[in-house]
Amino acid sequence: MYTIPFTHINWDAVEKTHHPGETGESYWQTLNFDGLRIRIVECSAGYLADHWCQKGHIVHCLEGSFTSELENGEQVSLSKGMTYVVSDQLSSHRSISAEKVKLLIIDGDFLKPELKQQKSADEH
């Protein structure tokens, strides 16, 4: 169970960290709570993630557009106002952006399948 007090976020005051991609680069502004991570991620035009990710996320496109490529070859394009959601270990994916894109990404323990299974077992 999460216990997060009322918290407002001034993203202008959150430090940006640099993360190079296979091509292009991204900048993350990250807030960490116990078992929860909230980020604003800005990717440059021509960005290709340098790894396949199996972590679960809620990804909401704030500006621009990007493609989430799945390791099985499927591609899903998202633009401003669109969101995708996936739990941990349910896909291997990476981001590609032809143009600059700004994303809100939320991930954490609540996206771990084993926690859902444990919670169901605890309820019975």
TrEMBL record:
SUPFAM superfamilies per record: RmlC-like cupins
NCBIfam families per record: DHCW_cupin
Protein name: DHCW motif cupin fold protein
Source species taxonomy: Bacteria, Pseudomonadati, Bacteroidota, Sphingobacteriia, Sphingobacteriales
